[in-house]
Amino acid sequence: MSQADLSPDRFRELLRESEPSFEEVLACVFDLQPHEVRTYETLLDQPASTVEELATELDRDRSNVNRSLSTLREKDLADRTRRLLDSGGHVYQYRATDIEDTRELMHETLDAWAAYVHDRIDTFGNGN
């Protein structure tokens, strides 16, 4: 994860919420768009989904679903496996990172971001 993953503007918005939802925190910590959060949640409910199945379920075109899945995979929130088809060829099936691992990843990302901010604070007044 890069330090840019946590959006300062979204973080400020989150702090204003009295009881932010899991979806709001997930979006903030990983700088996800609403459609990416929906894709993650759909994968939780329907593991081993293909892009085509997700596109149908989410009512989005396959290219948009592919982009959402790429983002989720880059942020370690989903993975894929290749399944061989009886008719030949293969298809990729996607799974969301389970909630427990996602919570741990959220903690790690926030801790890394906080350490980065603390380091930046320590350099203030030192010519930076």
UniProtKB/TrEMBL annotation:
<dbReference type="InterPro" id="IPR036390">
    <property type="entry name" value="WH_DNA-bd_sf"/>
</dbReference>
<dbReference type="InterPro" id="IPR036388">
    <property type="entry name" value="WH-like_DNA-bd_sf"/>
</dbReference>
<protein>
    <submittedName>
        <fullName>TrmB family transcriptional regulator</fullName>
    </submittedName>
</protein>
<dbReference type="Pfam" id="PF01978">
    <property type="entry name" value="TrmB"/>
</dbReference>
<dbReference type="InterPro" id="IPR002831">
    <property type="entry name" value="Tscrpt_reg_TrmB_N"/>
</dbReference>
<feature type="domain" description="Transcription regulator TrmB N-terminal">
    <location>
        <begin position="26"/>
        <end position="99"/>
    </location>
</feature>
